[in-house]
Each structure stands twice: as C-alpha cells, then as structure tokens.
Amino acid sequence: MIEKVLQILSMDPTGQKYFTIIDYVIFALLLVASMAIGLYYAFTGGRQSTTQEFMYADRSMKCLPLSLSLMATFQSAVAIIGTPAEVYANGTQYWFIGCCYILGLLIPAHIFIPMFYRLHLTSVYQYLELRFCKAVRICGTVTFIFQMVIYMGVGIYTPALALNAVTGFHLWGAVLATGLVCTLYTALGGLKAVVWTDVFQTVVMFTGQLAVIIVGVHQAGGLSDAWVKVRDGGRISGIDLNPDPTVRHTFWTLGVGGVFLMLSLYGVNQAQVQRYLSSRTEKEAVMSCYMVFPCLQVALMLSCLMGLVMYMVLYFVMDMLQNFPGLPGLFVACLFSASLSTISSAFNSLATVTMVDLIKPHYSMTEARATLLSKMLALSYGIICVAMAYVVHLMNSSVLQAALSIFGMVGGPLLGLFCLGIFFPCANSIGAVTGLAAGLVMAFWVGIGGFLSRMPSSVQVLPFNSTNTMLPGDFRPAGLNGLYSLSYMWYSALNSSTVVLIGLIISFMTGPTKGDDVASGTVYPVMRTAQSLLHKLVKLSACCTSPEHTVRWS
C-alpha cells in the first residue's frame, strides 16, 4: 500500500497546491516546540549528566506519558498516510486489526514486562546473554541495529517526499529540518525529552486527524450523507472469516497474525522495552502497557475514518481544505509529528544498545565519559538517518517498499529468539543462534520473494462493495508461489515459529540445557502458571455448581 501511495505522490503535480504563511507558521511551531522540550530537559533536573538519566529518565516516568509515547513510537508517518489509503482502496476490513491489540498487549504486560523489569536490564538484549551467552546477545543487537537504521531513512524520507509532491515544499529542506531538530532534542534531552515530545506530538497527531475528519464530514454534507456515500461506495466491509492464509486481509490474518506483529513491537523491541524500564515501578510499567490499548484504538479509528472521508490524504487536505487557513499546516504538522516520534525513539534506543551491548562490555570508562559518548552516539545516528534518507531517495518506489518490508521481516525472528529463551528452558545457545539465522533466511526468502512476485503497478479502487480478498478467477497459488502469496500479516508468525522450531531441534541435537544451568528469572514458568490457572478454574466451577449456589424451582 505504501508503494501505491508513493506512486500517486510521484505523479506530475500539475494541480499542485501551496502552503500559506499560516501553514508554514504552524509547521514551524511544531519543530520549535519539540526543540524547546529537548532543551528544557537538557538544562533542568540532572542535566542528562548520567547514563541512567539519559537512557532511562532516572526510572522516574509515570504511566500516562509512557503510554502515549509507547503508542507514538510506531505510529509513523507511513501509518498516517498508508492506513487511510488502505481503507479508501479496499474498505474497512483493515479496521479488524484492532482485535489483535488485546493479546498483543496482554502478553507483554503479564510475561515480558515483569521478567525484564525484575532482571534490572539496561538493554533488552542483556536478557539474551543471561539466558544464553554473549554471542547470542551480540547477534540480537546487530540484527536490531540493522532493522532500525534501514527504517530511520524511510521514516524521515516518506513524509518529506509526500509534502514535496503535493505542496512543492523543498524535499531536502524538510528532511534536514526534521532530522536536525529530532537529532538535537534526542541527543540533548535524553529519554525524558523523547517521551514528552512524543506526548506533545501525539496531541498534534490526534488534533490534525480529528480536524481533517470533521471538515471532511462537513464537506460531504454531514454525518448521514457521509455514511450513505461510503456505504454506497462499497467502503464498509463485513467480517471476513476466510481461513486462507494467502488472502491479504481477513479476520484471521489481522486478528491472529497481527498478534505476533504486536508482540515483536510491544514485547521485545528495545524502543518499547526501554520505556517500560524507565517506569518508577513494575506496576506502572504494566499499567502503561494497558493504557496503550485505548490509545492505539483511537489512533486506528481516526486513521480509518480519514480513509472513509477522503481519496488520498495529502491531496484531499490541500484541495478540499484550502479554504480553511492553517488546516493544511496542522495536518502536515500531524504527519511530521508521527515521523519525529518514531525517529527520536530509534535514535535513543540505538544509542542505548550500541553503548550497553557493544561498547561498555569491552571498554571501561567513567560515568561522565559514558554519558558523553551516549549523546555522541545519538548524534551520530541522526547523521546516519539523514544519509539513509538520501540512499532511499536514490531508490525507486519498489525498492523503497522492500526496505519498508525489511523492518517487519526482522521483527519476527527477534521475537522468536526471545520466545525460545523465555518459554523453552531446554533451548541452548547453539540452537538460539542457528534458529535466529534460519528465521532471518526464511524472513527474507518469503518476504522479498513475495514482494517480487506481486509487484503492484497502480492503485485499484473498488467500484462496488468488496473486501478485495478473492484472487481473480478464484485462483489459488501452489508450491513456492503459495508460500510467496502468504499474507504479510503472517510474516511475524512464520518467522518467529521458524526460529523456535529450528532452535529446539538444534538444541536437542547438541544437548539441551539442563534446568540447573538456566539463570534464575530468565524462563517463564509455563507449566506452573497453567496448573495454577486450571486449579482456579476448577475451584470456580465447583463453587458455581455447589448446592448452596443452585437455584431451586418450586
């Protein structure tokens, strides 16, 4: 879908609209306010003088700002543009992805967060060394860095390209402005600045989306007229229970396959775990995860509603909203808020894992020097981000879509690696490394193979009520084509399962880890938890069927 968006945004802009002074002022205020928050935390409190404060905000964050920051981290500009485009082109079937948020957040809240918090980690990849060995930790860290560096360039370039294509706003002016501001407030203000700018940017995101929806509905003639138009236009999709895993979006691909995607983002991703670990208490860390649920639902609802009231987001904003001074600027601020929140989180988490996992274990240094080096790392990743944006600029849109897919491909194998260690005490370090390698091979094989086999050329808007889930002529691909046709929503499930399966096989072949050799607190007691839950269910059942609780009829 993002490729389709970029293809449209790259067309000849003969009907190009332009920003007014008010629009430029609103956009500039976003950057100035974000920079001011970073400067505030750079020169107040502890002045970011320790690694504990710079990386983990002195473990003093409350659950409300953390929950908004957790939501904003992966609510990127790609989602702000892509989700409405998806809903417009294929209907509201995508809205069912909200179902996966339940398990996708409950499992981290009750399994991953308590374990990581009690181990007093400073990097989530420290867990891999505690559970397996240093080699596994380094493999996990390098994989994460590879994942995030690629996504940084895409994350900052996409909104700049969209803005340039629609408004004529200077492409590299937008890239450099956002890259510079984001780098400075992250390097100067540390995690506190990142979290609080995320809060501010979330408010801007929601405000911009809501404003566009309200004006769009008004322009359509009101709620009732808007509803009739989207209904008659075939944009309202019913629940699709088709079990075929090659169908792009069904209830199962979104509601079940999406759980694995959520776990890779909110369970084991350094950017999110770092926020959990910055909480004052474990209870607040868990509560912040709970509070992400309504935040994500609101973000999803706003994005889907935008898709119902417009054709292509930025074109709609610049065309229909031109008579509302400042509204195009507000929406562009919304778009870049999403970009800033994602990129700043990437800078901070990359600086943390590089320092904690790759540098500190090999070089001893004073706290002051470690803090300075952490800030320099954040600054360096900012420069790399702008450089990656230029690399993305040199790609065509098809390669850009592949680069975006890589982000999703790598998350699944990392999730599988952590699940292997947490849920299977018999797994050893050889199995872990081999399983991760197998998962990455599977991810790139299926992901890139599937991408090359589909290669969409243009947006095809549905002319009637359909969820666009059936292939022409009910054709069902077989063999490798069947594997390549797997819905992208199943990628994380397939890749993480590959890591676990291969990891367990190799572990048993090379000698499984004995129970006494497993570090305390690194394995989740699955059997004990299941037995406890079963005991409670039996007790509850017995209570409900006891004579004193039985209703007697006379």
From TrEMBL:
InterPro entries named among the record's database cross-references: Na/Glc_symporter_sf (IPR038377), Na/solute_symporter (IPR001734), Na/solute_symporter_CS (IPR018212), Sodium:Solute_Symporter_SSF (IPR051163)
Entry keyword DNA damage: no
PROSITE patterns cross-referenced by the UniProt entry: NA_SOLUT_SYMP_1, NA_SOLUT_SYMP_3
Any single Gene Ontology cellular-component annotation: apical plasma membrane
Record's bilayer topology term: Multi-pass membrane protein
Reactions accelerated catalytically: biotin(out) + 2 Na(+)(out) = biotin(in) + 2 Na(+)(in); iodide(out) + 2 Na(+)(out) = iodide(in) + 2 Na(+)(in); (R)-lipoate(out) + 2 Na(+)(out) = (R)-lipoate(in) + 2 Na(+)(in); (R)-pantothenate(out) + 2 Na(+)(out) = (R)-pantothenate(in) + 2 Na(+)(in)
Superkingdom assignment: Eukaryota
Keyword annotations: Biotin, Cell membrane, Glycoprotein, Ion transport, Membrane, Sodium, Sodium transport, Symport, Transmembrane, Transmembrane helix, Transport
Entry's localization field: Apical cell membrane
GO molecular function annotations of the record: monoatomic ion transmembrane transporter activity; symporter activity; vitamin transmembrane transporter activity
Transmembrane parts of this sequence: 21-43, 63-82, 94-117, 138-157, 169-191, 203-221, 250-268, 289-318, 330-351, 372-393, 399-423, 430-452, 488-508
The protein's role, per its UniProt record: Sodium-dependent multivitamin transporter that mediates the electrogenic transport of pantothenate, biotin, lipoate and iodide. Functions as a Na(+)-coupled substrate symporter where the stoichiometry of Na(+):substrate is 2:1, creating an electrochemical Na(+) gradient used as driving force for substrate uptake. Required for biotin and pantothenate uptake in the intestine across the brush border membrane. Plays a role in the maintenance of intestinal mucosa integrity, by providing the gut mucosa with biotin.
Record text on subunit structure and interactions: Interacts with PDZD11.
UniProt name for this protein: Sodium-dependent multivitamin transporter
Organism name: Sinocyclocheilus anshuiensis
Gene name of this polypeptide: slc5a6b
